[in-house]
Amino acid sequence: MRQLWMSAIVAGALSFGAATAADSDLAWLQRSSIFHSGLRQAHTIALTFDDGPNKNTGPVLDVLKAHNVKATFFVVGEVAATHHNMLARISNEGSLIANHSATHPLLTGLYDNDPEKLIHQLRMVHDEIAPYMKPGDKFYFRAPYGYWRSAHAAILNADPVLRDYIGPIYWDIGGQISMRDGYIMSSTDWDCWRHKWSAQTCAKGYLREIRRSDGGVVLMHSLYAKSAELADTVIEAMQEEGYRFVRLDEVPEYRQYETPQTAPAVAQLSSPQMVLVRNEDVK
Ligand SMILES: [Zn+2]
């Protein structure tokens, strides 16, 4: 059940002896998206499928299974709500479920003054996906549209569940279509489909961008009729070229952003100090 929260401005310094400077700098949700994955030049690919799952995610999972590839699915709560069977499949077949907000809004400054609304965007999804995650699975977050504000990190890190999230995770590959001399140099799937390109044409952009960077975190979506064929084409070519496929929790670079289990309950926050407390704790 969703808990009610309210914000309180707490005057004066908050001190939590267990936190070190390094912890508070590196752990927690970050003040800006994490752009550096460490997978470039590593001949390693982390496929990420955003905005689902829906009925078109099933064929994508079939493709992953056929190639013995594990990926990460950043799900949107209101989409996943009617496809819990897909959440179960993602988990059962060894891929990782991650959080991409409840309704995929642009998390603008409007949320700065409405912490409960912001927290709901992540907690709603968390409550939905948590039952399908395996013991020990880590929680990752990607901001809708990759848009992130530092003020939001402070608000979310005060939540006892969301503080354990790693992110926001950005991507290396798949952000946009680019062309040079008539060649597709990079692709992003939703825009390929908008241009009515085939999966084979769209894949060329992904493959060229992956080869140029020799690996990275790849952004795709598992929502569309051609999603499975695109994934199949990219995976097949990359496996032939010896690329390794990993889930985000196999990316060593991200380990530094994990919140230590010994960390205090609430992060030290910069002034003005905003702390989120349960309604029942408010006298
Ligand atoms: Zn998205």
Can you characterise this structure?
- The chain has helices at residues 21-26, 57-67, 77-80, 84-92, 115-129, 150-157, 189-194, 199-213, 227-240; strands at 5-9, 44-50, 72-75, 96-99, 178-180, 183-186, 215-221, 244-245, 274-278.
- By secondary structure, the protein is α/β, with parallel strands linked by helices.
- The protein has a single domain (5-278), classed as Alpha-Beta Barrel (TIM Barrel).
- Helix 8 crosses helix 9.
- It is globular and about 50 Å long.
- The two termini are 23 Å apart.
- Bound molecules: zinc ion (ZN).
- Zinc ion binds next to loops.
**Which CATH architecture?**
Alpha-Beta Barrel
Number of domains: 1
CATH class: Alpha Beta
**Morphology call:** globular
**% residues in beta strands:** 5-15%
Bound molecules: zinc ion
The number of distinct helices, counting runs of at least 4 residues, comes to 9
Gyration radius, to the nearest Å? 19 Å
**Contiguous runs where pLDDT drops below 50 for at least 5 residues:** 1-24, 267-283
Question: Under CATH, the topology is which?
Answer: TIM Barrel
Name a few traits of the molecule.
alpha/beta; TIM Barrel; 5-stranded parallel beta sheet; 9 helices; 31% helix; globular; binds zinc ion
Give a brief rundown of this model.
It is built from nine helices and nine strands. The site of zinc ion has 5 residues, from loops.
Walk me through the topology:
Layout: E1 5-9, H1 21-26, E2 44-50, H2 57-67, E3 72-75, H3 77-80, H4 84-92, E4 96-99, H5 115-129, H6 150-157, E5 178-180, E6 183-186, H7 189-194, H8 199-213, E7 215-221, H9 227-240, E8 244-245, E9 274-278
Parallel strand pairs: 2-3, 2-7, 2-8, 3-4
Antiparallel strand pairs: 1-9, 5-6
Helix pairs in contact: 2-9, 8-9
Bound molecules: zinc ion.
